[in-house]
# Entry
Amino acid sequence: MRGLWIWLLAIASFAQAAATPPAGVCGQVVTLATHGGSTTRYALAAAPEGTVRGKRIGLVLLVGGGGYLDLDEQGCPRALTGNSLVRMLAYFHEAGFVTALVDAPSDHPGDDGLAGFRSAPQHADDIGKVIADLRARTHAQVWLAGTSRGTISAANAAARLRLSGPSAPDGLVLTSALMSGQSGGYRPWVAQTVFDFPLETLRMPLLIVGHADDKCIRSPPDLMGRLAARTRGVVRQQLVTVSGGPGYFGPAGVEACAGNAPHGYVEQEAEVAAGIARFIHGKNY
# Structure
């Protein structure tokens, strides 16, 4: 991960200047009580006070894969470090966001991690607690951003929490959304897609980003128009198809769903993060 020399945030208030953390510290670890006696941890981080113009905005980041980051006590992920949202952290901080990099809950560790729990109402409630906690700390808007399998979590939370006050996200970003599933697979959750949720009920601003060369069978770019159509009731929407990058020369399949492929915007982190920031700040990607 690039740009790990970020600053710890004081628990009491973001108005106080942060102190320089020791080398290797990625953020402040926040632990919340969540469903069924579990706990959920997230790494809270931002650029130093005084280096960001304008009002800070909170950004809750939901990574793909199993969602199990295995955050250490310094807030650094020990797993899924190649995920696109993890690689974009420094760029989000430079753009003025306070980030909450969310780990899988304590009862969903390991490679499978969240598995089918991504679509559960309790998972949405857990994300709502992260949103509410980050909102209390920032006193500002809080957006959800999910990538790959993280878009299932993000769509679940956005649809279920849209009317839940402090737990409701102010906006939604979906990158490499999982729009295609397969029933009857060895892992039943491979059938889950963002279309499993009542997307027509969403009213918050929505940014949809995909890559023209994405060969992941779960996120075919030709389905992005269907996703945009299902969410046309939102107050502001933009659909963006990214091109370029080093490409992927293998066949279409699950191997193409990795972070080091167009699915993960490899070598395009700065470009994509900047576009996300512009949209969140009210402009076009």
